[in-house]
Design goal:
It comes from Lasiosphaeria ovina. It is built from 22 helices and 15 strands. The longest helix has about 40 residues. It is an alpha+beta fold. About 55% of the residues lie in helices and about 5% in strands. The chain has five domains: about 100 residues, no CATH class; about 90 residues, no CATH class; about 200 residues, no CATH class; about 220 residues, no CATH class; about 40 residues, no CATH class. Helix 5 packs parallel to helix 7, helix 5 crosses helix 17 and helix 6 runs antiparallel to helix 7. The strands form six sheets. The chain has a four-stranded mixed sheet with strand order 4-11-10-13. Strands 1-2-3 form a three-stranded mixed sheet, with helices on both faces. The radius of gyration is 34 Å and the shape is globular.
Length: about 750
């Protein structure tokens, strides 16, 4: 059994070793600090007293010392005299000299065995050993095959990163123990140990692909860091992280949040509803972002994790039920306090999880402490916002009504429980300050300190500024998000938003058997809205998100931040535009739009004209969404055309300039009061289609034709004997057994 140490785990791969002809053991250290630690360990420790010294200078040295501990503890307990150990640095001249000395000794032994037992017997043993070595190498390649596949897939989708290192999570698992780190270069650092980690129970990879038993789920397991920054490198698990089932269940609640929040904002399109929508949706987005971040950071896959998700979902549900009446002018109807209460319950629960993780996984204690501090600062501002009232409400409490001198009615302030109370504007400042802390400061500040210290780290520790040294020690192990998981979850959320816009244009006819009434302006606006959503889906997933050379998250910290916050702006703006579009579809202000062609439910939702607020929601929302999509595209680095050495017809800045011009037109359309609802939707759809067509043309290669002509030829070569054998075997052919020329096709008939 492996034993735990103070670092929270043991190294995944021990320092290599070999024996010299005189009996000395040579231990090969990979880093200079490891070599010094191992020399001190072996020079000062008795044979059967290897566990009484647990001091190390750095986590890497602690890893090497722990390895030396285990090697010494595994030595023969009956050995009575000190083992002569020599520690060398990997690749040094001393390392090469000792290897050659051992090689010459064993070559001489082999020659002696050939002379004693005969060349034939020794050669047969050598042949058997060579076959065994070849089989072991193939097994080793199978172990790292997953790492290579995932690494290549990650590089092809999100760009190459020379600082990325992968480790196989199945390496060196024994006695049910699993560590959270490793290295592809054979050396790794300890991150965490999961005492309950069962074989084949890794996150997102059921069964682990091995030959063990079925999946088992534990009540509680120590969290394991999936990927992290350390020593200037990004270390990540080789197994691909897949979306968990409870994450998809978590998204189901956001379907309701988007619909309820968007529909209510469009019912009364004014500044008050815009404020309420922005604040409440940003709060919901923060909870979603926290959940995705924690799931991406740590692997547990136990019952406790699922219960934690259920608690957060319950808190989010309570928050959702108090969204619509938040910021209500009447304090008796205002649900802002309840809204903040459920939000803080979710945030403080996440902070408690981070505090527990800091205790269980000490190596990421710095980042967990920063997360807890950010939650507490934001919580203080939220609590303060609950207790802030307007000046009018403050005067209403505890002050008597003053009668005017002429004996008329009083014009003093209303009671805080009355229906005409002033809107609590003083609360807004604290609310946006709290949102800034939660959305920006709590996540950006640790990253900024980490990158600032890394840039000022010198080759010699003495030359590094003292503050940078302290920050480096505090954030020595910095958890990183899984790029595949984050992109997939964000794409899923964008799909929910686009789906809301598609559902919003659906209405019901009440025309009966009159076919002419079915093809009306309502249907025309719905089809145009559908085309518009299709265009935005095409732009987001295939134009902006396709053909990436380097993804924004992998490109730099600035581009990753731009990508993250642009998504929030895009989603909020597009939800407002989609909500306004759902109202525009049933507006009866144009020709061929009879109100009696709609069912009673949609007649109640219909309006005789388009209000200015609805125009602003729709036009400015579309313009802001398209502008945010341009920022998302700007954050990525895209590949050129597939033709070697070719360039796009227009560079990216020209394509983005076209988007900017279209956004300006979108913004100005809100002032075009002469356009009815059909003209407004048709104009915005035409501009969206122009943007897509311009992008497709500008990204193409000038030397390539936009149309591909000619016909595709299909051939099927199969001999009569092969066909007869395939028929006798019920048409089943072993593809692996076919030659290269045989893998074409099988005739359906002769």
């Amino acid at each position: 059994m492996r034993r735990n140490n103070n670092a929270g785990g043991a190294p995944r791969r021990r320092p290599t070793e070999f024996r010299l002809p005189d009996g000395r053991k040579v231990v090969v250290a990979r880093l200079p600090e490891d070599a010094e630690t191992l020399r001190r360990r072996y020079s000062s420790t008795a044979p059967n007293n290897n566990n009484n010294n647990n001091k190390e200078s750095t986590p890497a040295a602690a890893a090497a010392a722990a390895a030396a501990d285990e090697e010494a503890a595994a030595a023969d307990n009956n050995e009575e005299e000190q083992i002569d150990v020599e520690v060398v640095l990997h690749g040094s001249d001393e390392h090469r000299r000792l290897l050659r000395e051992a090689q010459a000794h064993h070559a001489a032994r082999r020659a002696e065995l050939r002379a004693r037992f005969g060349a034939a017997a020794v050669d047969e043993l050598d042949s058997a050993r060579a076959e065994l070595d070849a089989l072991e190498r193939q097994l080793d390649r199978l172990q790292v095959d997953v790492s290579v596949r995932v690494g290549n897939a990650s590089f092809s989708r999100f760009g190459f990163d020379a600082k990325l290192r992968m480790y196989d999570d199945d390496d060196d698992r024994d006695d049910g123990d699993g560590e959270g780190s490793g290295g592809s270069d054979g050396y790794s650092v300890p991150v965490s140990r999961s005492p309950s980690f069962a074989a084949g129970d890794s996150d997102g990879t059921p069964g682990g692909g091995g030959g063990g038993g079925g999946d088992t789920i534990k009540l509680f397991k120590r969290p394991v860091v999936k990927q992290y920054f350390h020593g200037g490198l990004l270390w990540r698990a080789a197994n691909q992280t897949e979306v968990m089932s409870f994450e998809l269940f978590f998204d189901l609640l956001y379907v309701g949040i988007i619909a309820i929040n968007g529909d209510h904002a469009a019912e009364e399109a004014n500044g008050h509803e815009l404020l309420r929508f922005a604040v409440t949706f940003a709060m919901s987005w923060k909870i979603w972002s926290d959940v995705q971040q924690l799931v991406s950071w740590f692997e547990t896959n136990d019952v406790a994790q699922r219960v934690e998700m259920l608690v957060l979902i319950a808190c989010l549900l309570g928050q959702t039920t108090n969204m619509l009446q938040a910021f209500a002018p009447d304090p008796a109807e205002d649900t802002f306090t309840q809204l903040v209460g459920f939000y803080l319950a979710a945030r403080l629960f996440s902070a408690a999880y981070c505090a527990l993780t800091a205790y269980l996984v000490p190596l990421v204690r710095g980042m967990m402490a920063a997360q807890v501090a950010g939650v507490l600062v934001g919580a203080a501002l939220w609590i303060a916002s609950v207790h802030v009232y307007t000046q009018g409400q403050g005067q209403g409490q505890g002050q008597t009504e003053q009668q005017p001198p002429d004996g008329g009615e009083s014009h003093g302030d209303e009671s805080p429980h009355g229906g005409d109370a002033e809107f609590p504007r003083q609360r807004v400042g604290l609310v946006f300050a709290a949102l800034a802390v939660d959305l920006v400061l709590s996540s950006a500040a640790p990253v900024w300190f980490f990158t600032w210290a890394r840039k000022r780290t010198a080759a010699r520790e003495e030359d590094t500024p003292p503050l940078a040294r302290r920050i480096n020690r505090f954030f020595e192990f910095f958890p990183a998000i899984n790029i595949e998981h984050r992109v997939e979850r964000t794409n899923a959320f964008v799909t929910l938003v686009l789906g809301y816009s598609v559902v919003g244009v659906v209405f019901q006819n009440a025309a009966g058997g009159d076919s002419s009434a079915v093809l009306n302006a309502f249907l025309g606006k719905a089809v145009l809205g559908l085309v518009q959503a299709y265009v935005f889906n095409w732009l987001y997933f295939e134009v902006d998100g396709g053909g990436l050379r380097t993804h924004a998250i992998r490109r730099s910290v600035v581009s990753a931040s731009l990508w993250q916050y642009s998504h929030l702006a895009f989603i909020m703006a597009y939800i407002l535009a989609a909500a306004a579009l759902s109202k525009l579809v049933v507006v009866a202000d144009c020709a061929n739009a009879p109100l009696d062609a709609l069912t009673e439910f949609y007649q109640e939702r219909s309006a005789p004209s388009v209000s200015l607020g609805l125009r602003l929601y729709y036009c400015v929302g579309l313009g802001t969404a398209l502008l945010a999509m341009g920022a998302i595209s700007l954050s990525h680095e895209h590949r050129g055309p597939a033709t070697g050495g070719a360039r796009c017809r227009l560079p990216k800045w020209a394509r983005l300039a076209n988007r900017g011009a279209v956004c300006v037109v979108f913004f100005c359309l809100s002032a075009a009061t002469g356009l009815d609802s059909l003209g407004l939707v048709a104009t915005t759809t035409g501009l969206s289609a122009w943007t897509l067509l311009f992008e497709l043309w500008a990204k193409s290669c000038p030397s390539d034709s936009l149309f591909v002509g000619g016909c595709t030829e299909y051939t099927a070569r199969c001999g009569r004997r092969t066909l007869h054998e395939a028929t006798r075997s019920d048409g089943k052919v072993d593809i692996a057994g076919l030659g290269r020329a045989e893998k074409t096709a099988v005739l359906d008939h002769v």
